[in-house]
Amino acid sequence: MNTATHTFSINFPNHSGVETLLTFVKLMLLAWLAIITVVQSTQARATTLVSLTFDDGRNQSAARLLLLNHGMKGTFYVNSDRVGLGAPYLSKAELDVLYADGNEIGGHNIGHVDLATLSDAAQKTAICNDMQQLVNWGYQVRSFAYPFSSTGPTTQSIVAAGCPGVGTYESARAVGGLVNPNSCNGCPWAESLPPANRYYISTNNSIISTTTLATMQGYVLEAENHGGGWVPIVIHNICDSCGSSLSVSPATLDAFLTWLQARQAQGTYVRTIHQVMAGDYGPPPPPPPPSINLLNNPSLELDVNPVNNQADCWQRAGYGTSAFTWTRLNGGGHTPGFAESLQVTARTSGDRKLVQSQGSDTCAPVVTAGKQYVLSGWYTSNIPTGIVAYYKTSAGVWNYWQTSGNFAATSTWAQGSYTTPPVPADATALSFGFYLNNVGTLVTDDYAMFLKQ
User: What percent of the chain has a predicted confidence (pLDDT) above 70?
Assistant: First the structure.
């Protein structure tokens, strides 16, 4: 029998070829992991925009400082005919300061009327007369909100058509249309970017007194978890126990804004309505320098009631027994315009001073407990003077708080400045001014109040 021997051989690559193959495999794996990482990172950073919107201009004096403290801007939809009517409405001076801070002022129609109940002509009048007044006040007005979130068959087209010779609204916000607790199942988690219908922007339900911080946070988190988008928050009154169910406490709103600040790392940013409509979706710009004056009418220029010949949002105050004269000077101030002169000609006790109005809920600047503030103003005086400060409690009671050291008498303009200690826990607002506690003459101008950084 013939025996055949079969030899089987396997040709292994040389050592150099093995290294090349392993290197190739490693590169492929690294590339695949990089793709997965980019996809996951993109998903994690899907942009979510939050717009803080404030309707009706009622009980919203606290909004300014809360927004400033968190480096945020809001959109304030106001009925122009109600501005300056007195509490609880915003004053014109407050609206001017909000606008100067970079907040957006939007229209809400004359009289807060239900547009769906009006004729086309009446709707246009209510919308355009409101816009005309806001424009006359010097505001750029681009955004509108429907009172009661109510529209008729032609309302959206009337808003979109604009106001000839005045301007055109680029958007209009409703209320509702996004998912809410116990309602609107199946609705979107967020408005799309850009919105599908710019003249009917959807929101979650209005914030009410029973809306918890967790619910407000949930609106944002659900949007983040479902691919991002736009979450306009609808706020009316900012107050504790102010008799309206459409309200949020300042403490809850402050906590929400603090939480929102930390969401920037997740790609969530706060933008005004106009900023979103303009396509401003990216990270926010650096915060402004700490140079925003918290006072209303700080240079004493505004006086809408010339009969009393007294600067708006300021009051001439004092206690004890003395003979004195107040004069509103037109010229001769630290800067061109008005200044305030106080002359004490006889004194037995007490003092006299000009301070932010303590009889108004909208004039004295809102403060945050635990924060410090820098108070200042320019003065001339023939005797030493100083700054005296008061704070308002949550019960609405004004208390004496602090007095600075003396500022020397001076015949030329000098700036007196005083940094407060931390604000008491129960303080909600602050009022201060220069005082005279002896016979002499004091002229003041250009006051300022800054949050200490």
Answer: 88
Number of H helices, E strands in the chain: 8, 20
Task: Specify burial of residue 114 (Cβ count, 10 A radius: 0-12, 13-18, 19+).
Answer: middle
Cis peptide bond N-terminal to 88, omega within 30: yes
* Domains, the chain, with CATH or none: 48-277 (3.20.20.370), 314-451 (2.60.120.260)
Q: For residue 154, what are its two tokens?
A: 């032609």
CA distance 51 to 294: 23
Give the pair of three-digit tokens for residue 299.
């240079």
174 or 310, higher pLDDT: 174
Helix (H, G, I), strand (E, B) or coil at 44: helix
Nearest to 187 by CA among 133, 229, 237: 229
Phi, psi of 204 (to 5 degrees): -75, 175
Residues 237, 375: Cα–Cα separation, whole Å: 28
Res 288: pLDDT? 54
The average confidence (pLDDT) of the chain is: 89
d(Cα 419, Cα 440) in Å, to the nearest integer? 25
Of 136, 134, 162, 159, nearest to 147 by C-alpha is 159
Q: What is the DSSP string of 62-113?
A: THHHHHHHTT---EEEE-GGGTTS-TTBPPHHHHHHHHHTT-EEEE--GGG-
Residues 365 and 65: beta-carbon distance below 8 Å: yes
At position 376, the amino acid (one-letter code) is S
Beta carbons within 10 angstroms of residue 414's beta carbon = 15
| Single-letter amino acid code for the residue at 47 | T
Q: Which residues contact 14 (CB under 8 A, 6 or more apart)?
A: none
List, as one string, the DSSP characters of 13-32: PPHHHHHHHHHHHHHHHHHH
E strand or H helix at 134, and its extent?
helix 120-136
Residue 328 has pLDDT above 70, yes or no: yes
Residue count of the chain:
453
Once rounded to an integer, what is the mean pLDDT over residues 91-100?
Answer: 91
H/E stretch holding 171 reads strand 171-177
For residue 52, give both structure tokens. Answer: 């803080």
